[in-house]
Amino acid sequence: MVCEPERIPATSLVTTNPDKKINQYVQRRVLHTKHGSSTIMLCRDSNTEGREVVVKAVKRLSIQDKSKMFKKSYVAARRNDPPSSEQSVQKEISILRACRHASHVQLLEVIDDPSQDSVFIAMEYLCGGQIQWECQGKPTLTTEQSRRIVRDVVLGLEYLHYHGIIHRDIKPANLVWSGDRSYVKIIDYGISHYSSNCVQVSRPHTRPQLDPLRNCTFFKDQELLKMRGTGFFYAPEVIWLPKDTPSPSTSSDTIEPCETPATRPPVTKSVDVWCLAVTLYCFLFGHFPFHPTKKRHNQYALNKLILDNDWEVDETMGADAVLTGGRRHPPHTPSVIGLLDQMLQKDPSKRISIVELKRHPWILQGIEDVDGWTWNTSPATYYMHPSYRWLRQLLYRLFSTYGW
């Protein structure tokens, strides 16, 4: 699952023409535009027999950057720093360079011409599109499809967390199908964060895979205190409020209040587990686990529900209408409802980790060789010395064959 590191081309000159061509990339259509700060285009690479690629154009100066530059306080404090938008794109590029893994979209080229007002990021194109998980409030994925998708995402998050990276915005819109819909990949690292204190790689200073992250000086841990992400997927620690803050009425009288931490917990990689749990819930039930009434549908009301209230389940789940058995399952049950209970813990210190999640019976269901799959997909395996890796594989085969 872990790809060999390779040199990503970095081009410092952009040539354009009236035919909507950026160097060798010929624009076919615009896929998405975000607040005027970035544009995502589907292009054809004329250097590789017309291969389709995605090119993301990110402006060096956002509208907010331009307005801030007129303030004297900003000029005095930040005159030697790049604008925040340019810092963000450099952070995203450094994470893309480090993500050489089958569950992550692959970076192809960075075009950074100082004379241009945008930085261009060329990435692989996944023609299966975003995951469509509901139709008129009903789930469109079967429970088995949901399991396969979540399994791919777990492997991708395990790789990120192993390298000290938090994605911070896992949601269906950031999971994209391959052309044959046999697997999904994680995309969009615009608000992702790297911390050297969270790296699990042994002797990280000797690992060239981490060079792009080490060389980027814009990662500051205080950035984790900012409310970043997507409303319905916010983890409680991201939107924490004091306990005495008034709560709006809930969407159901049967939903019970939950115990939340009295003080704000730190934002850690557990935030990705929460976001993945909300994503899995959406796949299974076709709606969000926390949703204010129409009368009180605003971000504050949603935040209070996420912080203070429990979640409920429907009678059935998935497009195949599998019976859920209700909300209350015994602790550490192998069911997916029990798994959601471990993932949707308000206190991140009590939340299941990605490593534990990977070993959960519901995730492993359908895998014949569990130990082999766990071993082969571990990011730690890639960093082992080849001789030790060979010895481990030999011992594993002997144990599997003769039952030693």
UniProtKB/TrEMBL annotation:
One of its GO terms (molecular function) is ATP binding. The keyword Kinase applies. Residues 26-363 form the Protein kinase domain. InterPro entries: Kinase-like_dom_sf, Prot_kinase_dom. Gene3D superfamilies: Phosphorylase Kinase, domain 1, Transferase(Phosphotransferase) domain 1. GO terms for cellular component: cytoplasm. It holds the Pfam family Pkinase. PROSITE patterns: PROTEIN_KINASE_DOM. This is Other/CAMKK/ELM protein kinase. It comes from Armillaria novae-zelandiae.
